[in-house]
Amino acid sequence: MKKWIKELKRLKALRLYTHTHTHTHTSDFKEKGITLIALVVTIVVLLILAGISISALFGDNGLINKASGAKEEYSKGEAKEKVSLLLSEYTIENATGENTDFAKLLRKNLQVGVAQNGNNTYSFMLGKWQVVTTTNNIISIEKFKLDADKIYTSVASMKADTELTAGKLVQTEGYWNKAYGGSAYYDIVSNTSLTVDDGKCIQLDNGLYAELHAINDTVTVNQFGAYGDGIQNDSEAIKKSVNSGYKNIELINNQTYIVNTQIYIENSDVYIFSKDSGAIILAQERFENNLIFNLHQVNNIVLTNINFDMNSSYNSDIAIGGVSIYQSQGIDINNCTFNGTGQEATAITSIKSSNINIEKNKMLRTDCGFMTIGGETGEKYENFIISENFFDGQRPYSEPITFFDNSNYNNIKIINNVIQDKTYASGIYTGNGKYTNVYINNNNIRNCSAGMSINNTSNCVIENNIIEGCENGLFIVKNENITISNNKINNSKNMPIILNGVNTSAYINKNSIIGHGSYGFFVNSNIMCDNVIVQENQILQNENYSNNRSVVIAGYGNIKFIDNVIDRSMQFMNVEKELNIYVRTKQYECNGEIMFYYSDKNEYLNVNIEYIE
Predict the structure, then answer these.
(1) Residue 253, Cβ density class (10 Å: 0-12 exposed, 13-18 middle, ≥19 buried)
(2) In angstroms, rounded to a whole number, what is the distance separating the alpha carbons of residues 556 and 605?
(3) pLDDT, tens digit, for every residue of 510-546?
(4) Model pTM?
(5) What angle (nearest 5°) sits at the alpha carbon of residue 371, between those of residues 365 and 374?
(6) Rounded-to-integer distance, Cα 479 and Cα 218, Å
(7) N or C, fewer C-beta in 10 Å, the chain?
């Protein structure tokens, strides 16, 4: 800069013309000289400013690099925040005695493959960040980087390289090619203890071996040769991947994998997942057992975000099931879609298994959504959670949620599900076995033959459910210690609540029954009801069925009917055994009818009516 200023002073002092001219010409030359100097100065200043600006934008400490760095730091901060929140959640859940599996918590919430390392750490990829954490604190978050000695376009080109030597780490852009996916790293070795399967271990043309270098114990089915194009058959590639020994198996998002044979899953502790909108496993034709996945005597399997297409688009006469769980424990199926043909095929079948969690799935055009079968009398299974699922019953004949076999089941939770359009079946069914500690809460059931058919339970709670437009609402058979409360049962074409079989210690309270076609509350003939309390319910008739009773009790035993609101009469009838009824109610007209009717045969009938203001 000093050099330029010195040069400008020299030009200013220099006289450009020494000849004698008129004053006018001399002045003109001076003005032109000054203009030229100003132009030079302007150009120099602009160049200096441009250099400063470029340096400010693109230099090591420039704005572009700083903005890029800030973006990286923001992305890293986002990853840290997500993991930190899950660490807090894990701490809280453990403190409240839930004993949450930390790896499962990470997988479920982040949709990532998680490696459980020998030093009590967990590692996984979150976007481009490699995260290492314990259950208490994050150890590191670094951008993932792994330098390969050589990169190939495909597995075939890697196999054909006869100059490749042992000790190298190489990378392929895809298994078949980049378009089909399956990019992977491989360790080149001269000897291997692995079985050559063209997935986990590949033999090269020069006699060496390429062992799959999995990141965070996670592989994709494409790395085992799956195309995912909706055309090629991917059955064998999926079989090899899920039974490869790796803990995390990914199906690539938005790809369609064709299968024409049953996929047996025989390894425990496997997480099979896809991200975001999910991958599709498509079965197009009838095959062995007509079943896509068979979880066979395994433990701790998680299926997440997979769309099981059970031949929905190809041949509606061929019924293919989704997932069978056989003699297994710790199975978690969540955020999956099961799309059937409307034929006799079940989305998820549990056979002699325990500790099953079915959550946030969609069952479309399937026969049964979730069903237990195959258990024998006296066998015991426990801990079933069926929550936040959607069941669309295009096939009308079988129950969306059914416990069907003869076994003993303990700890069943059926909560927050939506069930619709099972016109010839119950929305929820417990059948031939014995069921202890059953909790059915906050389900929305529409247009079914019965909202629920609950049989053979003890310690059962049914509360806060909505049952709309069903033929019957609740069909209650042979239960002990059952509570039915705060349910809304609307527009039943027949009867909202039916007690059949022996029911003891039943508490039915604060339910809202509006618009019933036949009787509002019905105890069937010659049915024993011991210690049944019906209290503070609202039972209002449908105007189109004006001649039916609000309550009909035809059984025997001991029943209390307390502080209920009804708009039609009650009828008591008994033929053979003693029926003791206590009624406490306000005295009011029942749509012009008398309040109580008695059958002609009432020699065993004892009714105590207390009117209150």
Answers:
(1) middle
(2) 9
(3) 999 998 888 889 888 778 888 999 999 999 886 666 6
(4) 0.86
(5) 135
(6) 48
(7) C
